């Protein structure tokens, strides 16, 4: 029996565990090396039936080089918890958490994947043509194809995320409308290319469309109520409570685990940090995007000229 006048506080174990995981500032994909190794294996196994092993190795190498550009830019920009992983039937991705939400750094990170790959494609194609090596030429064409494809202004490609950053993130209605158009465009592209991978991504984006809307509304409701640039471990108890309650309102299922709740809390904090670039930075980033497309065109023209000169 509790002594008279003693206040008994009932702690919520799941809430406290979510707070502990959130304070660590780490996500469910924190074991970056293991994630990369396992996902590469899954990607290769998914591609092996009916695929040429040499072509699969080339594609994995090109995708890894592309994601390595994103990863290096994230590391140089001070991102935390960076990791590269492959997605069977689709490609690869790089994840990381910005500590300051700099829109300029975010734009550079997005372009750091396709731009180096397109620049590398030109000498690789040239060597493949001069050496008459089909594998090297295939690597060059794959570099152009993968990186130019990623510049398409459709989510979730780098080009689509760049357009969202510089143009459509400025208002929730614009962002929601752009994502809806991106889902429709990606679905049309998947149908035209008869791509199962793009079809699966389209389905996933469609299924999570309402979730993204709830996240945007939660972020709008949290603005001004906590410090978005604070590290997870530095937030005050009342700020943690607001984040947790917002995450719980988004994830209404009773089956949500503390790790999932903590991950969503981190995502909400990351979204609060995000800002839109100024118009000068936006023009610069869009100019870099146009320049990258011109490099892809230059690579195709260069290959045609080299092929003709090589006889």
Descriptive account of the structure:
It is a single chain. The chain has 13 helices and two strands. Strands 1-2 form a two-stranded antiparallel ribbon. A hairpin with a 3-residue loop joins strand 1 (80-87) and strand 2 (91-97). Helix 1 (13-24) crosses helix 12 (258-273), helix 6 (134-149) packs antiparallel against helix 13 (279-309) and helix 7 (158-168) packs antiparallel against helix 13 (279-309). The protein has a domain at 29-169 and 281-311. It is 69% helix and 5% strand. The chain is mainly alpha-helical and 311 residues long. The chain starts with 12 loop residues before the first helix and ends with a helix.
Feature tags:
two-stranded antiparallel sheet, 5% strand
Overall radius of gyration:
22 Å
The mean pLDDT is: 86
| Widest β-sheet, arrangement of strands | 1-2
The rough form would be described as globular
- Strands, count: 2
Low-confidence stretches: none
Order of helices and strands: HHHEEHHHHHHHHHH
Q: Report the major sheet.
A: 2 strands, antiparallel
- Going by helix content, strand content and strand pairing, the class is mainly alpha
Task: State the separation between the terminal residues, measured CA to CA.
Answer: 95 Å
Strand content: under 5%
Helix content: 55-70%
State the helix count: 13
